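Progress against Task 2.4 (sequence-to-structure conversion) is shown through the following example record, which the project officer requested during the mid-term review.
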Amino acid sequence: MSNNITVFGQQNTFKMRMVVLLLSVMMVRVLLMDAVVESTAEFDPYKVLGVTRSASQAEIKKVYKRLAKEWHPDKNKNPEAEDMFIKITKSYEILTNEEKRASYDRYGQTDNTHPYGRGHHGFRHFHDNFYFDESFFHFPFNNKGGRDFADSKYTLHFNQYISEVVPDSFKRPYLIKITSDWCFSCIHIEPVWKETVQELETLGIGIGVVDVGYERRLANNLGAHQTPSILGVVNGKVSFFHYAVVKGHLMQFIEDLLPQRLVEKVTDKNNQEFLKSWHELNKPHVLLFDQVPSVPLLYKLTAFAYKDYVQFGYVDQGLSETADLLRKFNINTYAPTMLVFKEDVEKPADIIQAKGMKKQIIDEFISNNKFLLAPRLVNQKLFDELCPVKQFHRRRKYCVLLITGEEESFATGNEAFLSLASANTNDVLRFAYVYQRRQQPLCDVLLKNKDSTLPQQVVILERRNGAGKILYKPVSGGWNGSKEDKHKLLEELERLQKDPSILNNDAVLPELNNEFTSMFLIRWIYTAYDYLAEIIDDLLHNNWREVMPLLSLIFSALFILFGTVVIQAFSDSSEEKQPKTKAKEASKAENGSPNTSSTSRFFLVLDITYTSNLVKLRPGHINVVLVLTDPTKNILLSKFAKEVYSFTGSFTLHFSFLNVDKHGEWMAAVLEYAQDAMQIDTDEDEAGSRKLDYTGYVLALNGHKKYLCLFKPVYTGEDLDSKPEEEGGGSRSRKGTTRSRSTTLQIHHKLDRLGLWMERLMEGTLPRYYVPAWPEFKIENIKICHLETCTIRNFFK
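Structure tokens generated for the chain above:
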């Protein structure tokens, strides 16, 4: 019994020790993991270099050079300089390696910094705090050995998209997939995507993958707001894929991205018209013979890549309408055949025939035949490619240039020059010609100090730099295509091979005129058609998120347009409701100026509420109000317009008039707050029941700050001995003279000094009379007269 108890106790002791040992191992492992996590979290290459996650390679390199020079241990005696230098170097290595940088952006670590050396199959970063072993759970997400490994080489960043993809999309289309972690639908389309990508890559189509979790900025720039999404980019324009994700639909989507009219269908009827257009288009022409009824996608992609250099046509061998072409050029119907035609439309300049043509073969074939034997210089881009600038590591390139004309009389010389170019086998020489009338600045430089009476001339030149400097030598005697001219030119070219110094003239050429600018309207029409088709496609597929901003802009513009028309219509109707009786009274006003009858025509009178005109006037704005009566309206408005004309350019001044016959009570209530400016005479105080004459007064009203400035009529027509004193732009009459002057004051003299008062108003030196609250206005509308500059000019005509 005792032995059993002893054994049992030993077993329990052993178990306890094992438990303690396991707990100790687990604690050590956790501590090690925390240490690794802490060290990994502390090391951030972006923070070490002080750059953002979207920094370009050029920025990273520039910062690295500066920091490496600053923290180099040989120059920096700081004890931490060596460690800092190691961190800087390590950060630079990570951020300049696309794979390591992508790995760090995705997992917070690189292949060489994973905990415990487990690589991507060990402990993985999860929510910035936790790590777990994915290989144990066989989880499909964030596994470099799974779908992310296949997409890693296609991963796009924002700067890469802007600097590489967009410019390259003018030569080849791009197919981009928008994905994210934890996207189950992305997993479902993965097999189809992989199969399609493998085939599209062989055709030369660009592939890209954007992870929304790490490239939200790029996803927003592309307009992708859900995952998964597939889109195409051609000529910098983004188009979304809306159909079921199957290989056939994706291939058709790529084909639909390409512009129309890239390849022309050629038959026996139109082949001569197609081939003879080389002179007008200044391009070689390529014909592809094949048995399939539709143009192969590879051929369309080639036509898109070389659209600026070559014109493409397609001949369906299965049609009876192409039988004559097949016999004429002896085409083998068992394999695709490609012919290149240059100046000779009866004989191809080059031919290639092979089963299953590959992209590399076609590209090499087209690249070797990009130009005519003697092309016409139609723009600067073509000139730069035909006659490149001399480089030290390249052989010299000489350009033999014929200066000629378009008329029929130049045909003989042009054909002789072309025959000489056709016989040329020297890669150092390039033959070209220009029409003098179309490239006059260029020809003026080359023919300076030469006999300009010669109809055609040949110039041999070599470009020295990109700024236009050249060395050149005109061939003496001009050019008419005779045997002597050919012999003379060949001798000059042989001398040039032996002694380049015969080019003894130098000049700076201007940039060539673009002779195809007249085709801009046609290209614009085609572009507008493509955009319209895209909008219709978006509407059909309910892609409202992308279309909504455009629709919002259109409806806003329509609303503003029609709203303005409606307001103008109501304004015009209110203007036409002027009473005829008032017009008759105004015409009988005393001593009206010759322009008085036309004043009302040039003052735009609108009904604007008293509240918006004064009480709620915008801060900083002042309403200048002329006080008048019906009999004095035309005369005072005419004078008012002349005095304030120079101030109408200010956006903070508004000009109005107030009929004191209708609103005398409001006028009196406002002027109660300016009693010190009124200086009412004792006689008038005694006759309090007598109505005051406010005609000719001007009020400057600041509705926001609730103050006014007052202008009182100034008499300058009589009693010159008296010297009125201005106050607030008005005058202080001597005591006892106000009543006599009011009866004799001429109406058109009341505003004589208004211009000076306006200057003081703009300077802010006038006295201000503050109003606790603006008086109520019995009639809601106040008449406003907007004195626009054009109105006043017309008025003074």
